[in-house]
Design goal:
alpha+beta, five-stranded antiparallel β-sheet, 10 helices, 5 strands, disordered C terminus
């Protein structure tokens, strides 16, 4: 039987103070600046090459989309089969996505990692738009800034998102008006229509899921071949989805009633 190697415990030593002259510091700083310039040039070249290949891929993506059109409700099922996307979908979102016949993800020209997602719909009772576009553009200069432009959804009567006051109990004419008002609730389409611009903000999670995970091979999500349960648990732990928050509120109110 071989002996285990003895591991010595680190001995705490008094660190000797070290320093460099201003001349050396200046030389290193000068070299660092030169390296930064080379790195910027390299990044620009890499982006240029990546964009050129993106243009070569785009016709193939469109060709692939033509095949997907032959599959009934392909994008509705594909999106729903990603658990983190499903966590941000209501029944109304699901029904509305049933009319989506094409999704196209494209890089934004001149942007390092900006992209836009186009959803194309056949005639839908939900809205008059045949195309909804969400663009997400990230700045690489200074503090991380993201500019998100949502789609302007033209909702049809009775399918627009419910307003808070329309869901409350009212009397007389107000109650009659409330009865005719829409009670539709959306999370996914709310995300799709939201525009914002922030510094040091979190990156758009739903947009990145579609861009980086689903778009690469949508068919595997349609077929349910991707195991993304771990990602779903991570999202729930972070408490980032509205459905989880709502259920938590409900539990608190029930406990209050019991008390």
């Amino acid at each position: 039987m071989s002996k285990k190697a003895k591991i010595e415990e680190p001995v705490e030593e008094v660190e000797e103070e070290v320093s460099v002259s201003e001349e050396i510091r200046a030389k290193i700083e000068s070299i660092r600046e030169e390296l930064d310039e080379v790195n910027k040039e390299a990044d620009a070249k890499i982006l240029e090459v990546a964009r050129s290949f993106e243009q070569k891929r785009l016709p193939l993506y469109k060709k692939r989309n033509e095949v997907f059109k032959s599959i009934e409700k392909f994008w509705q099922k594909t999106l729903k089969n990603h658990l983190l996307v499903r966590a941000n979908m209501t029944d109304d979102d699901d029904e509305a996505l049933g009319f989506c016949e094409e999704v196209l993800v494209e890089e934004i020209p001149g942007s390092k990692d900006g992209f836009m997602i186009t959803f194309r719909f056949k005639n839908s009772p939900f809205f008059s738009n045949t195309e909804l576009v969400k663009s997400i553009n990230y700045s690489a200069d200074g503090p991380t800034t993201y500019v998100i432009k949502g789609a302007d959804i033209k909702w049809k009567k009775g399918y627009e998102p419910a307003k808070e006051e329309e869901t409350k109990s009212t009397k007389g004419k107000k109650r009659a008006a409330a009865a005719e008002a829409s009670t539709r609730e959306y999370i996914f389409f709310d995300w799709l229509s939201t525009s914002e611009e922030e510094e040091d903000g979190e990156r758009d999670r739903l947009g990145e899921i579609i861009h980086e995970e689903i778009w690469e091979d949508p068919l595997q999500y349609y077929l349910g071949e991707v195991d993304n349960e771990d990602e779903d648990e991570e999202g729930e732990d972070e408490g980032e989805f509205e459905e989880g928050e709502e259920s938590g509120e409900g539990e608190e109110s029930e406990q209050g009633e019991d008390d």
